[in-house]
From TrEMBL:
InterPro entries: CTDL_fold (IPR016187), Sulfatase_Mod_Factor_Kinase (IPR051043), SUMF_dom (IPR005532), SUMF_sf (IPR042095)
The keyword Lipid metabolism appears for this protein: no
Lineage: Bacteria, Pseudomonadati, Pseudomonadota, Alphaproteobacteria, Rhodobacterales
GO MF, any single term: protein serine/threonine kinase activity
Entry protein name: Serine/threonine-protein kinase pkn1
Organism whose genome encodes this protein: Planktotalea frisia
Top enzyme category: transferase
């Protein structure tokens, strides 16, 4: 059984529901930062002039265009998004409670909800997202689902922007800017659409990343081998050695979501998105027919306290 619920923000950005509200919590840096960096295997990214955005936008109103050039300093970035294993270490060391745990619920995609949970609330306009009480980074699909839905090598999900900030600070790092994220994803290839080049994934033959295949949101053929998240270190890395920059999970950045537009409709939607943070990369729920945001220049935004089964993050360190 489902029931629709209205939210403070009526604009539905991509396939990502919004909780609304804000809270900022930061933890102090851990004492073993050097050891942790070695275990996570961060990648050194050269500085220089890079691209941000595109002159061939695919989703008008998202702020993908125009292309800009940005000068960046060298930085280090995680080869993968943060996995459940490493997030569990953070929680064990600090006693941190995620916002999904504090609120007591999070958003779960409708096909992943256990059969015993008969009554859930759907999000108005994107009814495939359900509010599930007791869902969080450990019990991803709902109460008592860790045994079936959780794996140490998969990306941690149900983490808010605030949770990501807390973890990154504890690890001695930070979240990437949007420009840094795109620079790392392009891997020195210039103005390319995807981390591997120009040819996009499809439903039948080309599977370079973990996205949806089939008819969204009702049929996923799982032709790429995964129905939900894949391991954080899976598929072929880009030329810099970074895994899953596209697909798998959306990645939080440090930037505030802004769009320069003269269109009244765009300005109106942005009024409901004040304080939102930029996410990059798309997720396992993206399909070209609905959410063609699994491109380097594509972007989405969500409130800093929102959590879902397809949002994660990776950490950046300064030299």
């Amino acid at each position: 059984m489902t029931e629709n619920i209205n939210h403070e923000h009526t604009e539905k950005t991509c396939c990502t529901p919004t909780r609304g509200g804000r809270k900022d919590t930061l933890y102090q840096q851990s004492d073993n930062v050097t050891q942790v960096r070695a275990e996570i295997d961060p990648v050194d990214i050269p500085g220089g002039t890079s691209f941000l955005g595109t002159d061939a936008p695919q989703i008008l109103g998202d702020g993908e265009n125009p292309m800009r050039r940005k000068k960046l300093k060298p930085f280090r970035i995680g080869a993968t998004t943060v996995s459940n294993k490493y997030f569990a270490e953070f929680v064990a060391a600090t006693g941190y409670a995620t916002e999904a745990e504090t609120f007591g619920w999070s958003f779960v995609f409708w096909t992943d909800i256990p059969a015993q949970l008969r009554y859930t609330k759907g999000v108005d306009g994107v009814e495939w997202w359900r509010r599930v009480d007791g869902s969080n980074w450990k019990d991803i699909c709902g109460p008592s689902t860790q045994e079936h839905c959780w794996s140490p090598d998969h990306p941690v999900v149900h983490v808010s922007h605030n949770d990501a900030l807390a973890y990154a600070r504890w690890r001695g790092g930070r979240l990437p800017t949007e420009a840094e994220w795109e620079h790392a994803a392009r891997a020195g290839q210039g103005d390319v659409r995807f981390p591997w080049g120009e040819r996009g994934p499809d439903d039948t033959e080309v599977f370079p990343c973990n996205i949806w295949q089939g008819s969204f949101p009702n049929q996923n053929t799982c032709a790429d081998g995964w129905r939900t998240t894949a391991p954080a270190r899976s598929f072929e890395p880009n030329a810099f050695g970074l895994f899953n920059m596209i697909g798998n999970v959306w990645e939080w950045t440090s930037d505030t979501y802004k769009v320069k537009s003269l269109k009244k409709s765009v300005r109106k939607s942005l009024d409901s998105m004040r304080g939102f943070k930029v996410l990059k990369g798309g997720s396992f729920l993206c399909h070209r027919s609905y959410c063609y945001r699994y491109r380097i220049a594509a972007r989405s935004g969500n409130s800093p306290d929102s959590t879902t089964t397809h949002q994660g993050f990776r950490v950046v360190w300064d030299f």
